[in-house]
Design brief:
Distance between the termini: 34 Å
Structural class: alpha+beta
Largest sheet: 4 strands, antiparallel
Number of domains: 1
Number of helices: 3
Helix content: 25-40%
Number of strands: 6
Shape: flat
Order of helices and strands: HEEHEEEEH
């Protein structure tokens, strides 16, 4: 765990800003979507031999996104995962459905 923690600190120093490139028409506001957030960190992570994976898992009320980091140089066991739930609000184009996540 010591190796990946050190590599994550080095990578974090290189992170760029997550640009607010998407628009939410309901609130007339801009936000950084998931791809903008990944784009802001992925090069720094990879430059420091860190692999990031975000598998999704279905649950009763929506989808869970899990973030897993692994140090590819030292081949340490995956570390630092965080599970975030995204509830299914209602049927429609702005709702999350488990069957759509796995497409």
């Amino acid at each position: 765990m010591k190796e990946i923690a050190s590599a994550l600190v080095k990578a974090q120093k290189e992170f760029g800003p997550a640009l607010k490139s998407s628009t939410n028409p309901a609130f007339r506001s801009r936000y950084a979507d998931l791809s903008a957030c990944v784009e802001a960190v992925i090069d720094a992570l990879n430059n420091n031999d860190i692999f990031m994976m975000q598998p999704t898992h279905e649950c009763d009320n929506g989808v869970i996104v899990e973030t897993i980091f692994a140090n590819v140089r030292t081949k340490e066991a995956p570390w630092g995962y965080k599970k975030n739930g995204m509830p299914r609000m209602r049927p429609g184009p702005n709702s999350i459905h488990p069957h759509e996540v796995n497409k």
